[in-house]
Design a protein that fits this description.
L-arginine/glycine Amidinotransferase, Chain A, binds N~2~-(3-carboxypropanoyl)-L-arginine, three-stranded mixed sheet, 15 strands
Length: 447
Amino acid sequence: MSGFEVNFDGLVGPTHNYAGLSYGNIASQSNQQDRSNPKEAALQGLAKMKALHDMGFKQGVLLPHERPFIPVLKSLGYTGTDAHIIERVAKDQPALLSAVSSASAMWTANAATVSPSADTADGKVHFTPANLNAKFHRSIEHEGTGRMLKALFASDDHFVHHDALPPIAYFGDEGAANHTRFCAAYDNPGVEFFVYGQQAFSATAAKPSIYPARQTLEASQAIARLHGLNAGCAVFAQQNPLTIDAGVFHNDVISVGNRNVLFYHQSAFLDTDGVLRDLDRQLQGASLVPVMVSERDVSLQDAVGSYLFNSQLLSHADQQMSLVVPGECRENPAVSAYLDTLIADTTNPISKVQVFDLKQSMKNGGGPACLRLRVALNDRELAAVNPATLMSDALYQRLVAWVDSHYRDRLSTDDLADPQLLIESRTALDALTQILNVGSIYDFQRL
Ligand code: SUG
């Protein structure tokens, strides 16, 4: 195996809360107004990063965004001191305050789409931050994300950064949550698999009827063009609209791929035979290994409830793979029984299941795969990544101490009106930019 897959997990921010902001995301809606524990959330995320680092996987860290995000409130006409603005918005429009306070940037699978250098015409790694324009609280992430990615992947010799797509529904883009790459080895040319929820420019194509489809074909095609993907490198497929109506708001809630393996639910795609045929045909140097989970073994409802497919599929040096799942998978008897048969079955390379407690994030619909952005790199590219953002024993200790000293252990949506939370959050993030050596990336540090 050559090349690396580095998983960049989002650190959960100090304002992590449950505001019920994501219609179509069942966990987000059903936990609205619960009290959150930002400290526990951040420590749960860090524990996963550290455990994967200890298992020998390459692990990086992305920073939380500045929240509550005062510049957006100013752009909406609020004036005065920051404390005054927060007080006014809390009174006028508490829902707006929740939106600008969301720690949703933690789900870095939605941060960007990344194309490795082996797939692109100019031989560079391409990044496009996702416009996330389906939800207001997420649509305000891409500028900060772009700045952060430039601070981590700074070398022009290796990395190309694009702007997010135009911020309208026609080009709705949710980043790597709807993008999977198949390859024989991480630094070999791969097949980039773009899964979309709807065709914006078609009045007749299938669409979900209850919940919104966030990703459009038009957006996915634009990303493939911008990244200069080599001929034969892209496959586009529509997610089954029935799954969106069942709460599968991103493809990574119903399938996951790694190297030549596609692990998916029977109902994931509109045209499964076409997906398997195209991926297998375009994959170079390996055959596709499809691992299909039937409705009989795991119902769509259990898949959504347990987040079985929002797992990370990680390759070990011996070619075997681990499936990193949330604790909810072992709490669901059908899913747990399925996992036991999956790892006992030697016709696929998935031989281990690693379970993590990510309840704080899960209650907002964010499992192990949501929390990470995959970046496939070769040795030279890895050497050009900001080294302070790569996980180590020392960095883990520093980040745990940082969380312990800056984070609250309870937060309700009413607490978002506390101007002290803004000060605490900025103090924490200012210290974090020093720990991770990323410079002044936040607006509050630059204005
Ligand atoms: O966009 N939840 C996120 C969860 C994102 C999960 N990401 C992936 N599947 N890759 C979303 O729906 C809920 C916030 C709240 O309700 O407070 C939220 O934004």
